[in-house]
Amino acid sequence: MTTSPAEPPAVELSGVGRTYPGGVTALQDVDLLIHRGELAAILGPSGSGKSTMLNLLGTLDRPTTGSVRIDGCDVSAMSDRELSALRAASIGFVFQQFHLSPGRSATENVADGLLYTGTRRRERLRRSAEALHRVGLGHRLDHAPHELSGGERQRVAIARAVVGEPVLLLADEPTGNLDSVSGASILELLVRLNAAGTTVLVITHDSGVARQLPRRIEIRDGRLVSDSAVPERVGSR
Amino acid sequence: MRVRRLSVADLARLGMVGLFARPLRVFLSALGIAIGIGAMLAVVGISASSTAELDRTLSRLGTNMLIVTPGKTLSGKNAELPAEATAMVSRIGPVEAVAATGRVPAYVYRNDHIAPGETNSIEVLAVDRDLPGTVRATVSAGSWLTPATVDYPAVVLGAVAAQRLDVRTPGTRVWLGGHWYAVQGVLAPVPLAPELDRAALVGWGAAREYAGFDGHPTTVYLRAVESQVEAVRGVLGRTANPQAPMEVGISRPSDALTAKRAADDTLTALLLGLSAVALLVGGVGVANTMVISVLERRSEIGLRRALGAKRSHVRIQFLNEALLLSALGGAGGVILGVLATGAYALSRGWPVVVPGWASAGGLGATLMIGALAGVYPAMRASRVAPAEALSAP
Ligand SMILES: Nc1ncnc2c1ncn2[C@@H]1O[C@H](COP(=O)(O)OP(=O)(O)O)[C@@H](O)[C@H]1O
Ligand SMILES: [Mg+2]
């Protein structure tokens, strides 16, 4: 894993905590550094705070304590508009439920990944088709989600996440709704995308999935309990 | 890293996709708007068509006719015009045509077996030969009184009188004041002098000769130069009855038609108000559809936020959908309104008039309603917290 010093780390959490309005503390005191080009699993049982973590990493939510830096940008200092722009340009999301829009072709769905980046439609469609080829769906460009298998739908979602060539790809239980064969091929695809340069974070409760990834970060009850990479400490506690 | 605005084409496409994902619901809420706009446009269109018809009628009949009647004496009895009133009126400079009718104290029956009481409310009037030219009456069957028949027992029936007597063919005889009269012709309805429709008309001379007519006119019809009508009106009383000018009644029958238009305007305003309520209900339907849409599409909103949509992108997307939805309804409504106006006007033989301002106004109102109906749902959509929206099932 090579990182040029000029490039900021993809993710930098220091002392991050998130307490929900009801009083539930879903995340507490998390320090984490993920460099560009890494491939890591965030592993934990249900309710341990994984999705909360994904929302913070994806700038969909803000921490109640600590600081979150994505690609060098301090999230707490940014406005909602700026965060939207950051997500459009630098972060790709893959969800367990795919979240594809029904009745529209795979190409249209993937092109939505560029809709808010100011790219012209022609270019969006061209890059969408390209991304679909990259995830092995070159033969399914015009198919609507309901004409695709679960594994294929997740590939479309992944293509949508990477069509904008984000710095960071966040996948929340990407294999959660899939059988083991499709799940394995999705994981393989993520590994391949990582090899091509994308930083990939896979959130999972399945240690079988986590075991296949080079770095495993484990959380339990909102705390980071182990990190296979034993990363350097960031900031002070 | 700046996020650019969506192009108009992108917005339109987004709106279409959002709407056509739920075609039935969209159709029904657009229909609500369409009914409102259609009703408003039909009300305005039918009223405009009716006005156009009235204008056409007025220009055909002319507005320069005046009618002189004897009126009442100060003690409330029926007054009488002097026998020479017609001749005196014709001497007023700007008067172009004059004709008189006089009530004859006789009744007309289909034959001599009918009981005397069954008069069918048909008046017998003595007439000048100039009458059709002055009131612009035409015959629908047979002919008008000729110089040869005007002093003989011949009669021309008004449209309603002919119907009541069940006489259609000229040449038939009717029993009038104890004599047989040959029906010479039947008049078409006379819009400016509907009293002629219910009358049996006999020549002035014949009426005096056979029916005991006293020769006093009871109605004098006259046409004046259009610009002088009011001036003529001012001197008519003195001219027609110099002995008692105040008794004389003067009217301008085209005023009645114009007054009818004013009455129609009141009704139109009322109906327009009702249609506006329908349109408002349609607008509430659109708002309702949009609110439900926002609730149902939380995960789509969350996803779009994750893909980099700003709040304003989400807001404009939903606002745009609401506008598109009501514009759809508005366009449908304009079509409905034009069809309804056309069908009604044509069925009555009126010219079809749908004012352009009404169609434009309808579409404008639609867009305003769409904006109003969409603004709250759009605000709600844009305030959805992305993380929560994505975790929604
Ligand atoms: N919006 C929320 N409001 C209140 N509590 C929440 C909210 N989201 C998650 N939680 C709570 O935070 C904890 C962590 O949830 P989550 O991050 O979803 O865990 P995981 O994804 O690992 O299952 C849980 O106890 C959950 O009930
Ligand atoms: Mg979760």
Automatic annotation (TrEMBL), chain A:
Q: Where along the sequence do coiled-coil regions lie?
A: none
Q: Which GO terms describe its molecular function?
A: ATP binding
Q: Name one Pfam family in it.
A: ABC_tran
Membrane spanning stretches: none
Q: Where is the ABC transporter domain?
A: 11-237
Sorted keywords for this record are: ATP-binding, Nucleotide-binding, Transport
Taxonomically, the superkingdom here is Bacteria
Q: What is this protein called?
A: ABC transporter ATP-binding protein
